[in-house]
Write a structure and sequence with these properties.
This is Integrase, catalytic region, zinc finger, CCHC-type, peptidase aspartic, catalytic. The chain has one domain. The chain is built from five helices and no strands. It starts with a helix and ends with a helix.
């Protein structure tokens, strides 16, 4: 979407870029997105600064993702065992 705005020569504010970036993140990032929204001024902080802030939480996001995948895999095994 941002590329289309730029391509059509629309003015894109820093705030719009940051909000769009945060909206595109996967569900695992939701907790960290909320923290960033509360602690940073999205109108003034740069896109790269937002990325750097969120990158610090990458390990925790990986753990959340692994737990979710393990839970899903366990459910699939359970369903497979129930099938005749």
């Amino acid at each position: 979407m941002m590329n289309e705005l730029v391509r059509n020569q629309c003015d894109v504010t820093n705030h719009q870029v940051n909000v769009q970036f945060l909206l595109q993140l996967q569900l695992e990032w939701q907790k960290f997105v909320t923290l960033v929204k509360q602690s940073q001024e999205l109108k003034t902080v740069s896109y790269s600064k937002l990325y750097d802030i969120l990158k610090q939480d990458q390990n925790e996001v990986n753990e959340i993702r692994a737990k979710r995948l393990a839970r899903t895999a366990n459910l699939l095994v359970l369903v497979a065992q129930q099938q005749p």
